[in-house]
Amino acid sequence: MGTDNVRIDDLSNLSAGVSPALAEGLWTSFWDGDRRACARLITKVENEPNSIPGIRERLADRLGHAIRIGVTGPPGVGKSTLCSAIALGLADRQHRVGVIAVDPSSPFTGGAFMGDRVRMDKFVGDDRIFMRSLASREGRGGLSPSTPYVADVIEAFGMDRILIETVGVGQAELDVMNTADLVVLVLQPITGDAIQSMKAGIIEAADLIVVNKSDLPGADTVLQSLRFVYSLGSAKSGKAPPLLAVSAQQTEGIEELVDTLEQLSTSIIQSGRHQELRQQRLVEEIKSGIVDELWQRYLRQSDAERVIENAAKHLAASGGSAYKFVREMCSNIQLTVDPKANA
Amino acid sequence: MSGSPIKVVVGKPGLDGHDRGAKVVARTLVEAGMEVVYLGLRQTPESIVAAALEEDADVIGLSVLSGAHMTHFKRVRALMEEKGLGDRLLTGGGIIPTKDQETLAALGVGKLFGPGDDPDAIVDYIREWIREHPREDAV
Hints:
The complex is a heterodimer of chains A (about 350) and B (about 140). With about 350 residues, chain A is an alpha/beta fold. Chain A has two domains: about 15-60, no CATH class; about 65-270, 3-Layer(aba) Sandwich (Rossmann fold), CATH 3.40.50. Chain A contains 14 helices and ten strands. Chain A has helices at about 25-30, 35-45, 50-60, 80-90, 115-120, 145-155, 175-180, 195-200, 200-205, 220-230, 255-270, 275-300, 305-320, 320-330; strands at about 5-10, 65-70, 95-105, 110-115, 130-135, 160-165, 180-185, 210, 245, 335. In chain A, the strands form two sheets. Chain A has a seven-stranded parallel beta sheet with strand order 5-3-6-2-7-8-9, with helices on both faces. Chain A has a two-stranded parallel sheet with strand order 1-10. Chain A is globular and about 65 Å long. Chain B has about 140 residues and is of the alpha/beta class. Chain B has a single domain, classed as Rossmann fold (3-Layer(aba) Sandwich), CATH 3.40.50. Chain B has five helices and five strands. Chain B has helices at about 20-30, 45-55, 70-80, 100-105, 120-130; strands at about 5-15, 35-45, 60-65, 90-95, 110-115. A five-stranded parallel beta sheet of chain B has the order 2-1-3-4-5, sandwiched between helices. The chains are: A alpha/beta (about 350), B alpha/beta (about 140). The interface of A and B includes residues 25, 34 and 110 of A.
């Protein structure tokens, strides 16, 4: 199981080989505010992950101001209807709004049935709002892998509030936590007793909890059990998130909900929390970017795919630890970093 | 991008409320691995084309059972040209006489399907059309 001796150095040249061959015309139209170009760029990001670093480099100057609001909750609680109402409310408060709605891809066929537009038909053709449906594809945490980058494209297009609606989730699909600045958890009456709300997971991640369909019986019970759970303390911020009862279909409570979102947005900007979240995401992005970049460079300089394949064959047949092989393989890589580069 | 799923917007323009056919076809396309944005009932040509534009759809599929197919397909096709979506496929189905299909084909509307057609034929037709009409990056 010998591996070639490979040097990975010259970190100054990190972005080599990743610039996408995108037509300049597309960029010109995009900066001119052409919605078709925006839609096309989103498709690029979705379909060609290799193009993401190059595209983000060009968007970078226009990023950092938008508030990304994740809207999550179990299937059928009314997330789409609620997003539609929130989007219109934000647009009426002089915001330009992006809406990203993620629906599940079939793990068997890869196909997806995306029905969010059925509930979001009130703002078609409204220039203040740009809406896009995404299939979750390989994503298993409520969003598609490209969702954060699609949000980048929409933000750079000029939207300053971006709603990100997850697929209908259970208790532990937490992608939205790492993608959004604010998380809205949507529940409905008859959603389970207090025991459900005491479980760990999505309920801890919420900055705002909305009990939708409040015109149906049982809304008070849900509100009461949530109040009880939060009276016991909250892991995230130490204080209970605002709790609102609304009926998206009857448009009851929507004004108050949008006002609350605006207050939360202002408060995370003023407290520096927004900047902090952006910084955290950048740290993760840089880390995974370095891993990808070094891996690609390693592949270019060695026969790693074949060596790994052979090692796996050997391990599967005769047993042994994969980690022993990993240590051996890595010990043959010389990673030298110029101290001046880290100054 | 040959490996990326084909994206289809499916909608029913006009007031006809018979959406079972549209749902069956949408489901068939999903089963075939396509990503279908379902718009549902009571759409206008404008709302369908606006949605297709934001979704960057490869295909627009209309279901028209009301007899108003000439109006709807013509209008949607015209709007597609106007909005720069002339390079996408407009197809669909309903109760559409052969001679109307010919008239619409001359306007750039794709193949139209009717009762009794095998849903898989729609899948084959769309795949074939996409293969023959690769989209360019330039906008």
